[in-house]
Amino acid sequence: MYSMKSLPKYCAGFLMMGLCWTAQAHEGTPHDTLAAGSDQLALEVDEAEAIGSAEVLQKIHANNLAEIDMGQMIMDRGNSEDLRKYGRILVRDHLIMDGMVNIVAKGLGVELDGASVNDDVAGFKESLIEMNEMLAATTSDEEFRAMLRAMAIESHQAALDLLRRAEKGAPDLSLRLLAKTSDPVISRHLQLAKEI
To answer: Is the dihedral of CA 185, 191, 195, 196 positive or negative?
Structure first.
């Protein structure tokens, strides 16, 4: 499943984002391509659906926080080792991903919480809170597991859709790289959710 072997992938993602920010700061030009040798990651933004960096980062951040809360709840309420293990995976991975989101947001000058959050993001955050409250209100182990499966599948599929849109259409290279490095992690979470 996941092990310390995954850590170099996350570190490589951080390094790539740092290199991109450095290159962007020095060039002061749009970042439609990476350095030579990384052409496969280059993306012409005008060919993809444009998507706002601030809104995407705020939604990913809100989703990470909700998934961390869900993971904690699963570890507390899970009646089997497979559920508790899934909870630990969610907490660990979403903490790491949220650290990456914070780094990208800081590099782009995006405020993740507070006054800059638009109504769409605020509504998104509220729906995540409501989902976790519904899960917490379940009374039986069977009801908890069934609701968890449905919610985890729905939330991870929505997160994948957002990441894939960002990977194709975000104007900022660092956000596209964040989306690209997060996709396999969220895909794995989705697969695990289907097996609950």
So the answer is: positive
